[in-house]
Design goal:
With 148 residues, this protein is mostly helical. The protein has a domain at 1-70. Helix content is 78%, strand content 0%. The protein has helices spanning 8-22, 27-74, 79-106, 110-113, 118-122, 133-147.
């Protein structure tokens, strides 16, 4: 048996030296002081254990409450899930509105569709060549009627 690096024979030697210096008259008094110290040490360690146990119980209780809160939040239609769905709907609506306004801004107007490109207006017009899209069909019909 090895206690703090001291073997059994070394421990007996230390006790003998202790008895020689203290003497038999003071031995009961010193033993009483050692007993009181041991009792206080046990009480302090028991109090520390109770405090740690109470803290552990509080942590477990707080953890279970937090777990319930998280469970309620994660349920569909409640808490955070409901808020996220609402925000998602708002974002989709805003995106649709932005898309609609972008489409209307990029649609050509009737006025812009009837404009003649600059290159086409520079060329001299040939006789009988339609310049409007509707005129081309009308001229083809007239050409077909003339052949018959």
């Amino acid at each position: 048996m090895d206690f703090l690096g001291i073997g059994p024979f070394e421990l007996i030697l230390v006790l003998i030296v202790f008895f020689i210096f203290v003497g038999p008259a003071k031995l009961p008094e010193i033993a009483g002081m050692i007993g009181k110290g041991m009792r206080k040490f046990r009480e302090a360690s028991a109090e520390l254990n109770r405090g740690l146990k109470d803290m552990a119980d509080e942590v477990k209780e707080a953890g279970s409450e937090l777990g319930k809160d998280v469970g309620e939040t994660a349920k569909p239609g409640t808490g955070l899930a409901r808020d996220l769905q609402e925000v998602s709907r708002e974002i989709r609506g805003a995106a649709r509105e932005a898309g609609d306004s972008a489409k209307s801004a990029t649609r050509p107007t009737k006025r812009a569709a009837t404009r003649i490109p600059k290159e086409a207006s520079d060329k001299p017009k040939q006789a009988g060549t339609p310049t409007e899209p509707g005129q081309k069909e009308a001229s083809e019909r007239q050409a077909g009627d003339q052949k018959d």
